[in-house]
Amino acid sequence: MDLQLVGRGRPVLVALAAASAIAVIALIISMMGVRTAQAEAARTTTTTLAPVAAEPEVFVGPAAGLALVPDGGVQLWGGRDRDPQLVLHEGVILPFLHRSGEWLLVTTMCNESAWVHAKDVEIVAQAEAGIGGPGFDLSKATIVLDPGHGDRDWGGVGPSGLSEKEVNLDIANRVRLLMESGNDIDWATGAITPGAGAPAFGNIFLTRDLDGPNSGDYELGLRYRMSVGTAAGADAFVSIHNNTVPRIDTDIPGTEVYYSTGVDGSDRLAGIIYEEMLRSFSEFAADWSGGELQGARARIDPETGDDYYGLLRRATMPAVIVEGVYISEPEEEALLATPEFRQAYAEAVYRGVVRFLTTDDSGSGINRPEIFPDDAGTVSGNGCTLPEQP
């Protein structure tokens, strides 16, 4: 009997099993449909969202120029992560030829690269160099004056102890004062008086300034010095020096003005300044000394064929190094110690730059470049220390 009941119930069990299977399959299909719809919804949502853009780099202000360090100094930063370095002393100039957003990549006085934030400095945009000649507007001119030496790079020292670095800075500052005001120039005598004949220059920068650390007595690397001129967009660069160790006695001052061979106009600038130096110094009596060659000169490295002097080799504008007189000689040192002679030196440089920018004068005493195999005696930059804000 039990067997019969089981046998008679098999169709029912099969039917129940089939119904259950159909229900499971339907449930699976339903679940798959839900997942498919969810995935489709997700895909639709993704495609309708705007892509997230990277924050654009913001450039505000010039791409090149000078960063003037204000009162209180400025924080220098190094590396890609802008790690803080030292707080640089107030009153110095930091040239920059590249910026990234609000960050300026500057050259320090020790020829190193560092970053400063644009908001922390006063920015002077790189000027567009003008074309000199008759009618040139001096009020648009940009000039860089470079007082040679500084700090442990003391330059020449006279028999009584007068330091060239001190003299050079004082003369450069006198030139700046002349350029900052309008003047009348008597070209027959060289006399300079206040007036409107030659207007004030637009911008004048000193690579080493009295407002800087230690009253302007700080060290500068050669790359830094010329970077100031390049970043400023200078129309002329004049480095002021005085010489040592003459070779001969001369009847006239043994003034030498070295010019860059790589920049047109540098020899003309040197020749004009040389003329004006002789005019100024003719008022003073001394047993003059000099080298075997005076006037406007250039020295060439025999191995490279480039300018021997690193400063002039890096020039991107008309550039000269003025060697006024020989501080190593007692009578000439005595003259350099007087304000009258320093003012005469400054007036010569001033008149020379005015003539260079506003006339077609060719200058005189211009010698052809000479091969110079000797050691220039350049002070190494090793050990250079940046002045920190106290």
How do the helices and strands line up, and which of them pair or pack?
Blueprint: H1 2-48, E1 65-68, E2 74-78, E3 83-88, E4 93-100, E5 103-107, E6 113-117, E7 122-125, E8 142-147, H2 164-179, E9 183-185, E10 192-194, E11 203-206, H3 222-232, E12 236-243, E13 248-249, E14 256-259, H4 266-281, E15 289-290, E16 295-297, E17 299-300, H5 310-313, E18 319-326, H6 330-336, H7 339-358, E19 370-371
Parallel strand pairs: 8-11, 8-12, 12-18, 14-16, 17-19
Antiparallel strand pairs: 1-4, 1-7, 2-3, 4-5, 5-6, 9-10, 13-15, 14-18
Q: How much of the residues is beta strand, in percent? A: 15-25%
What is the third-level CATH name, the topology of the largest domain?
Answer: Aminopeptidase
- If you compute it from the alpha carbons, what radius of gyration comes out, rounded to the nearest whole angstrom? 37 Å
CATH superfamily of the largest domain: Zn-dependent exopeptidases
Q: In the residues, how many domains can be counted?
A: 3
Strand order of the main beta sheet, please?
11-8-12-18-14-16
Rounded average pLDDT = 87
Individual helix count: 7
Distance between the termini: 114 Å
- Give the class from helix and strand content and strand pairing: alpha/beta
Secondary-structure element order, N to C: HEEEEEEEEHEEEHEEEHEEEHEHHE
Report the principal-axis shape.
globular
Instruction: Please mark out the parts with pLDDT under 50 across 5 or more consecutive residues, or reply none.
Output: 1-56
Report the strand count.
Answer: 19
> Can you tell me the CATH class of the largest domain?
Alpha Beta
CATH architecture of the largest domain: 3-Layer(aba) Sandwich
Biggest beta sheet summary:
6 strands, mixed
Q: Provide the helix percentage.
A: 25-40%
